[in-house]
Structure formats: C-alpha cells, structure tokens
Amino acid sequence: MTDNKYDRQLRLWGAAGQAALGNTCVVLVRATAAGTETLKNLVLPGVGNFLVIDDSSGVSDCTSNFFLDSSTHKSRAQMATEYLMELNPDVTGDWKDISGGLVAEKFDLLQLFPDKKKVLVIAADCEPPLRQAIAQTCWDQNVPMIAVHSYGLVGVVQIQTAPLLLLDPKMRDSVPDLRLTCPFPALQQAFEENYADDAVWAGLSSQEFGQVPYPFILLFVQKKWKESHAGGLPTSFAEKQEFQAEIKKMARNYDNELNFQQAVENAYLAYTPPKTVDIDYLLSDCNSERDLVLLRALQSFLQQHGGVPPVVGKIPDMAASTAEYVNLQELYQQQAKKDFDYVRANCTGDTSVTNDEITLLCQNAVHLDWLQTGPLPTFMGYHPTEDVVDDLGASEQDEERPEQTALWWYLGFAACQMFWEREQRYPGVNDDFEKDVPRLLECWEYMKTAYGLSLEDTRICKEMARFGNAEVHNIASVVGGVASQEAVKLITGQYIPIKNTYVFNGIASMGGVYHF
Amino acid sequence: MSEVGMVKRPLESDDMVIDSSDQQQRISLNTLLSRPSEFGNETGPLACGEFDPSTPPQSKKVLVVGAGGLGCEILKDLALSSIPLNVHVIDLDTIDVTNLNRQFLFRQKDVGKSKAETAAAFIRQRCPWIQVTPHVGNIQDKNLDFYRQFDAVISGLDNIEARRWLNATIVGLVDTDDDGDLDPSTIIPIVDGGTEGFSGQARLILPKITSCFECTIDSFPPPRAFPLCTIAETPRRPEHCIAYAYILQFPREFPDTVLDKDSPEHLQWIYQQAAKRAEQYGIAGVTYMMTMGVVKNIIPAVASTNAIIAAACVNEAIKYLTFFSQNMNSYMMYMGAQSIHSHTFAYEPSEDCPVCSASVRKMTVPATITLNQFIQTHLKDSSLRLSSPSLVSPSQTLYMVKPAALELATRPNLDKLLSTLIQPGEEITVTDPTLHGIHVGLAITFEN
C-alpha cells in the first residue's frame, strides 16, 4: 500500500513487466557515454543485474561521460559499474576487464554466462569486427542485442533479436469491439428480451430512455433498417446518412440525450462488418514451440468462426445507467471468457503457455504480428533486399531540405564504418581531418550504390569527416534513451520494438526508423 | 562499492595512456567547436547566428526550470556539454520516493529534501568545473531582472499553467525600438520539453520569431473531468467511484480539512470509500494504485523518454549558444510506444496570440451580456483560458482582481451590462496572472 518507487513505470508495464526486468541481466560491452547512458536507463527502472565488459586500461573519456571520472587507478569498466550501481540499490553490477584489448575472437557469451539467466547485450560504439562478432554470438545463442553508436551529431540504435511474436502491442484501440453486425447469442438475446420492440421503447420513462446504452439503440435501428431493406445494411454514403437520421428521429429530446448522440457518433459500428483475421502467414514463419501452440489454437478458433477473432470483452464508457452499463459489460466479459476457454482448450502441446499469454493472444488477435529484425546488418558487403531498397527509396524526405533526412546520415555513418574496415581507424580523428575526405567519399559512393539510393549532396560526407567519431554527450544521451526504451520492450515483451534501426540526426533534430 | 566522493578533474596529457588495443581517446564537442562546418547555425532553417570556429566558446548563463525528471537530465547534459556555463536551477518541490525511478540525482536518503538543492549539489560534486546555483521556490516569485540575466532558459516543467507564465514573462522581455524592429539583445530563447509515458516533445521558442507556448495551448486540451451527474448518480467505471469519494464525499465528511493529495491517510480513506461505492453498484476494478492515479492525476513516467527529450532540448540550447550547428525550426514530437515515430516541423505562430502578437482581438458579444458573463464565457471558458482576468478601458477601470480595495470598488460593475460600461470604439485591455506582464487588447462590438 505504501508508495512504490517504481509506481510511475508500473503504470506502463505492470507487475509482469517489472518481474521480467528483474529477471534480466544486461551486458554492456564498452562503457562509452552511449553505453553508460543506456545502462543508466535500465538500472534506474530495476533491471536485475548488469555486467560491464571493457578493454580500456587507462584511457578515460570522462569529459562526456557522467559515469567516469579522471582517476587512473580504476579501469573504465570498474568506474562505470560503481557509479551505475549507486543509482539503484535493487540492482547488482559487475565488471570484467579484458586485458590485451577487446577483440572479436575473445568475445564468448557462453563463457561469461554459464548459468541460464535471461540476457540482453548492449554493444556500445564498437568498431565493425567487434560489433559483428558480438552480433554473431548473440544470434547463434539466441540472445537479443542492441548496438548503439553516438558519432558526432549522429546517433544510431539497431536491434537484433530472434523472431518475436508481438502478443502485447498495447495498441490504443479507437474502434470498440461491440459486435453489432454479428451479435453473439447472449447479446442478441439481451436485445430481443429488452429492446427489440417499439412498445418497449415507448414504455420507458424519460430518464430510462436517456440511459439506454447506445449499442441497443443501434441494434434497434439496425433491425428496423433490415426490415425495410430486405435484410441489407447501409452501404452507400447516402444510406449511412439516412441511417444516422433514423437514430435522431428515434430520440425524444436529442440535444439532451447523450446516449443518442453517442449512437450517431458510433453509427458505423452498426453497419461495418467486423475485421477478420488471417494468421496463416504468422504460422509459416514460426519456429518457437510456445508460439506454435498459441497460434495454432487461435487458428482453430478463427476457422471455427469465419475468421472473426475472439471478443475482446472490454467496452468503452458510455452514457447509461449504472445497472444498464454493468449488465452490458458483463455480456461482453462472459463472451470473452467463452472465447478464451475455447482457445485454451485448443492449446495442446507446450504446457508452459500461461493464461495471461492466452488472454493477450485473444485480445490482440487483430494486431498480431512478428517482429523480425533479421541479423544485424554489416556495413561492407551489405546488399539489402529489393523490398528494403524500395522502402528506403520511399522513406519520408524533407522536400525543402532533403539533407535533413536521417537516412542520409546513416549512410554517412556506414561510410565511416567502411573507412574503419579499410584504414583501422575512423576518418577525421586527427587534426587534419579534411585529408580523409576523398577516401571517405569513395566509401560514401559505395554505400549509395549498395543501398540503391542517390543523393548528389556531398556535404553530409564532409560533415561526417569533421565529426571524427566525436563523443557528444547529448547525442549519446538521446541514443541511450532510445536504446533503453527498446531494451525494455524486448525484455517485457510489451509495446512494439523498432524494426530494426533508429537514426537520429542531431543537426536537424530529426529521427527515422529504417529496416535494413 | 564506490564512494560518492569521487571528484573529477580536467584531463591532463599525462593521463593519456594508450593501451595495447590502440584505442585513441575520442574527441569531444570541444574539438568540433573549432572545426569549420558546412552546417553551421547560419545555414539552418532557423538561423540565429554565424558559427565562428576560430573563437573559443564564451561562458553563458542558463536557467533550468524544474529539477525533476527532465531537470536532472538537463543538468547532466549541460554539465557534459564541454562549454563553460553558469547554471541556475529553480524548483519548489521536495523529493518523493516515486521520483527515484528516473530522477537520478536523488537517492533514498534524499526523500523530503529540496529537488533544486539536491540536484545542484550532486552535479557540482560529479562535475566540479560547472557552477550550479539552486533556487527553491516558485518561478512567479522571481522578478524580471532575474530572468533578464540569462542567455537561455530550458524548461522541464510538468504543468501547462507554469509554462504559460514562464512563456509570457520571457516573451514579455522582448523590446521593440521605435521603428518596430526587435532588439535582439532582449530575445532569450526558451527550450521547452515535456514527456508522458513513451511520448514527448521538445521545442525551441525564439520569442517574437517562432511560435511561442501560448500560440499552441489548443494542442493541450484541458484535463478531462467526469460529469458531476455521472459521478453522483450513474457511476459506471471504477474511476467514477474514486472521483465521488474525493470530490463529493471527502469535503462532506471533513468540511474543515483541505485534501492533501500526498497524504497516505487521505488517499487510503478515499480508496476505502471508493471501494465501498463500487461494491454497492457492482463495479469492479477499484485499486489503491488507480485511486492515486485519479486523485493526483498521475502521468506515467520513465527514465528513457526523459533522457531523449532532455538531451534533444539541451542539444538545441548548445547549438544556439555556440552556433556550431543548425537549430531546428522549431518543434519535435516523439512517440516511442509502437515502433518510433518522430516529427520535426515549424509550428506556425498564431496570428492572434495574446502573448506574442501585437494584434487586438475582435469579439462580438450579445447586447444583453453583463460584465461577469463576459468574463466567464469569453475570457475564462474560451480559447483564451484565462484564470482571473482584470479589465480596464481608457476611460475607467472595469474590474480589478487585486488589490482588495479596488476589487471591492469595481465589484458592482460585474452585474452591469457590458454595453453600459464601454464606449463604441474603445479598446479594452485585459491582464491575467497566467499571462504575466502581458496586456491583451480587445475590440468589442455588440450584436444588434
């Protein structure tokens, strides 16, 4: 009953989400500003524990990193861990110094985690070979991974995960699931017993009349309409207008009858057929046993019900007396329970499927989708699929200032990574940064071709050289925020993670999500 | 376990140890400030000044309004911005345990202490190269000279009324000369951030140049209140039962006690009453957590969104103070719940904004309207959303809220017909505490 320090976030992801956080270990590779900011935003909300792996044995980048100081007797990993642990006494942290430098060959997750804790890896500002090695290990061992980079005024966040069934997208449904075009038996019965005749309506007192919930008004007007239209429902614009006019005619004192006004507002529910769902494509991509059980059970339901998904069971508030509303709500809740029971009875096989998961499956059937990030894109040798190229080409661009579009800055960032692969350092890190421009331009041209994109402006490329992989705290903080937000989505299995790259252009303060 | 007393000192060349992996120290913003760019501030959509990489950055004075979720992030970001800054932070609040999931400059031991003072102390200790001066109190208690001293104001406030006041005050500082040109030395930018759950916005307000906060108050609808008849007679949702308990029952049972929304005892009482009422009406779902949420109008909050928005704000502030890169024009929206959607656009100033445009508002009113009715329907409950306006005409004081003597003297005017109080063609001037220092001009015509 006392105030919980996690109260403000529990209102976003609930006790289940919080438990998932508490069960997770976050591994941070490289305690750069982008890395420590990401970790800060996971320690504060109560991730179980964390491990910082780093290889800097004396270099202290404390001018842009809140979790480092300039003392030299502690390694960067240790400093960062100790400062981060202060943020939340619920969280334990540890560090590992890889002496001799963090190189690709030395990264072995299995060695680090012999016990099977739920792990999420953050790779911060890792150069291409190390980044790829981490990504490969995580892909092979089915560990979700987020790569973060802050590079001058450009920020990049990329996620890599095994296919994830998005059971809990938390979409804000603007269309209430009231089933007025195909009432389930209990709803139909309640209507027929109470509101199907003119005589019943005429016999209501003015107070009762103004407190009948609008679904019953719509069912009545719909019934009358069908009777005079050979069983059909309004389809043309004119018919829909007429339908709404019929509702108004039915009212006794429309301007003071909120329920009738709501009926007009929601009239479309009376003649729009329910959304049907087809999840065959979801099944074909399915590898996980648990997901297969859930999807097969839902598929049985859909096949049995003409593609119409389970009733959600929640109804919005509406003008009505308490009794009318509570009774109506009960009808929907009961039907949702029936549908849930049907689906659960069809969940054969993996007994680890929980009731909560089945509930989520039923309530979100209309929105179900896979998140398939694919493996983390490499830089050199990357050839996007045709679909990806088409999507990229169509990406929203600022017409007046196309160079502001975040996509171009990703291209610049990719060109810098390619430069690193060739030269073993980033462009522009030395004072004579302009000297690196011609070679960077070659990489830029290569990237443009590989991604099937074109932009004549070379200023972006020159600006990337100017950046010289600068660590700018504000940009590190933006990507730290984005990366931690995505990490929470992956850990809790709630909301919808990005697929698969977020790019922040700090010059124009513009971001974009791209699928590479 | 580290000691909190670690002190950072500026890096010296002896400290540079290149380890065997050949990692070079990355350059910082400092270096970028000395490298010429083709994206200097003068090239941007909101050009504020010209980038000169040959001049080292001058020390600037920045005011941070609010030391909470955004404020803590803003202070950290400013401290690590590599430019010399003199920072002031103002907040009237004390630290609550529910702040600790994101307001990372505070610890359990700090609960009950001043946010501004605790935040300032923490930053000074971790980043001793920066001056941070705390102010504990209301922004309304500071005078114009206080605000005039700053080169930029960054606001992480959590309510609209305070933002409106701050906006009116800062915009009100702008002077125009006799030719009608703005005096640039009186223009202080406000960078304003706000967050809610996974969403947020960051905007740059250049007074009298971009849209100001008042231009956009329509985009923040007034908080939804449940209709009284629903609460009293036909509750349907658990929230209605809670509203009944705290709006109607509490004042009835405790007529001499002011409801303290932070008191666990008061909240417990409300929760119990709400639960009883819900049971009576067959309504499920009343919880203590929901009770707190309804009574205190709690907005969900997490560290990640605050980090993003605050950093975007400070990024704009630093770009403004040094001109080293372009400023955005002028408003960024961010939504991170379902994938990420962000949109940066120029929010156009409102032509009849009472704060930043000089225009006189034309109003047509019924001939039979009294002064009081006019105040209610056209000033308070209208798009102007004023709280307690005072009105004068060139020939008389129509109604003055303060001082008490003047209020008493002008009170009889409230019931008089407005048409008897003003002459045709007279411009009425309205002032209001929400719009500090602003005079709203009205030209009223009466319907025949």
Instruction: Name the shape of chain A in a single word.
Output: elongated
CATH superfamily of the largest domain in chain B, by name, is NAD(P)-binding Rossmann-like Domain
Query: Overall pLDDT of chain B, averaged?
Result: 91
Distance between the termini of chain B: 79 Å
> N- to C-terminal separation of chain A?
47 Å
Order of helices and strands of chain B: HEHEHEHEHEEHHHHHEEEHEEHHEE
Name the strands of the widest sheet of chain B in spatial order.
Answer: 3-2-1-4-5-6-7-8
User: What is the architecture of the largest domain in chain A at the second tier of CATH?
Assistant: 3-Layer(aba) Sandwich
> What is the CATH first-level class name of the largest domain in chain B?
Alpha Beta
Oligomeric organization of the protein chains: heterodimer
Q: What Rg of chain A, in angstroms, do the CA atoms define? A: 29 Å
Explain what this protein looks like in three dimensions.
The complex is a heterodimer of chains A (516) and B (448). Chain A contains 20 helices and ten strands. Chain A is an alpha/beta fold and 516 residues long. Chain A has four domains: 7-165 and 472-514, NAD(P)-binding Rossmann-like Domain (Rossmann fold, 3-Layer(aba) Sandwich), CATH 3.40.50.720; 185-270, no CATH class; 280-368, no CATH class; 386-467, no CATH class. In chain A, the strands form two sheets. Chain A has an eight-stranded mixed beta sheet with strand order 3-2-1-4-5-6-9-10, with helices on both faces. A two-stranded antiparallel sheet of chain A has the order 7-8. In chain A, strand 2 (49-54), helix 3 (76-85) and strand 3 (92-97) form a beta-alpha-beta unit. In chain A, helix 2 (33-43) packs across helix 20 (473-492), helix 13 packs across helix 14 (322-345) and helix 14 packs across helix 15. Chain A is elongated, with a radius of gyration of 29 Å. Chain A starts with 6 loop residues before the first helix and ends with a strand. The mean pLDDT of chain A is 91. With 448 residues, chain B is of the alpha/beta class. Chain B has three domains: 37-220 and 302-345, Rossmann fold, CATH 3.40.50; 228-296, Arc Repressor Mutant, subunit A, CATH 1.10.10.520; 361-446, Ubiquitin-like 2 activating enzyme e1b. Chain:  B, domain 3 (Structural Genomics Hypothetical 15.5 Kd Protein In mrcA-pckA Intergenic Region, Chain A, Roll). Helices cover 30% and strands 16% of the residues of chain B. Chain B is built from 13 helices and 13 strands. Chain B has an eight-stranded mixed beta sheet, sandwiched between helices. In chain B, strands 9-13-12-10-11 form a five-stranded mixed beta sheet. In chain B, strand 4, helix 5 (160-172) and strand 5 form a beta-alpha-beta unit. In chain B, helix 7 (238-253) packs across helix 9 and helix 8 (264-281) packs across helix 9 (288-295). The interface between A and B is large, with 103 and 100 residues. Chain A: This is NEDD8-activating enzyme E1 regulatory subunit. Chain A: It holds the Pfam family ThiF. Chain A: Keywords: Ubl conjugation pathway. Chain A: Belongs to the ubiquitin-activating E1 family. ULA1 subfamily. Chain A: One of its GO terms (molecular function) is NEDD8 activating enzyme activity.
